[in-house]
Amino acid sequence: MDIVCGLVALPVVVVLTVLLSAVSVIVFRCNPLFVQPRRGVHENEFRVVKIRSLPKTFHHRQGKHDMHHHELDWWSNFLRRSHLDELPQVLNIIAGSMSIVGPRPMIDEVVDTLEPDDRVTRSTVKPGLTGPWQISTVGAEPLHDHPELDNQYVEKASLASDIRIILITAAIVFGKKPLEPKRLEELLGW
């Protein structure tokens, strides 16, 4: 189902990626795309492609929570708040290394900070383009401080909860605020 949905969305994703990348070229004056290693199922490494949302002076492994002392420009803020920089990851969905919904794909430095049980739990499923952590208010905090939403997803996921997560994600892309964890759990039936 992920692959079929990814293929259906691909034409729109390609057009949006080209348009957003063109703006990134103008704003950052460098390659508008970048590739970043992430961990997936069984902690196997795979690469994600993202639209550049930060100047090239930022190291590709620098986490968003390491940037609190940097002032970001309007384009960086827009891309990061809307999560449109993640659109090229539809290619990872089509390739089978990601799902539409799942735990957040993490960089090595974050994986290494997780408790062993949390690492094992989250690595049993494919990471997702969106998921409960991304659409909750704890998404503004370091992932290793709040692994419980991704763990709950692994234990309680269903087609109905995936559809709800996708709908909430769409609302957030269009400006709705992320949900408090308790409210999210109620909406997902957890």
Topology of this structure?
Layout: H1 2-28, E1 33-39, E2 45-51, H2 74-82, H3 90-95, E3 99-101, H4 108-111, H5 116-122, E4 128-130, H6 148-156, H7 159-173, H8 181-188
Parallel strand pairs: 3-4
Antiparallel strand pairs: 1-2
Keywords:
8 helices, two-stranded antiparallel ribbon, mainly alpha
Outline the structure in words.
The chain is mainly alpha-helical. It has one domain (about 1-190). It is about 45% helix and about 10% strand. It is built from eight helices and four strands. The chain has helices at about 1-30, 75-80, 90-95, 110, 115-120, 150-155, 160-175, 180-190; strands spanning about 35-40, 45-50, 100, 130. The strands form two sheets. Strands 1-2 form a two-stranded antiparallel sheet. A hairpin with a 5-residue loop joins strand 1 and strand 2.
Strand content: 5-15%
SS-based class: mainly alpha
**Based on DSSP secondary structure assignment, what is the total number of beta strands?**
4
Q: Please tally the helical runs, counting DSSP H or I stretches of 4 or more residues.
A: 8
The helicity comes to 40-55%
The arrangement of helices and strands along the chain is: HEEHHEHHEHHH
What is the CA–CA distance across the termini?
Answer: 23 Å
Shape: globular
Round the Cα radius of gyration to an integer and report it.
16 Å
Largest sheet: 2 strands, antiparallel
Average pLDDT reading: 88
The strands making up the biggest β-sheet line up spatially as: 1-2
Question: Structurally, how many domains make up the residues?
Answer: 1
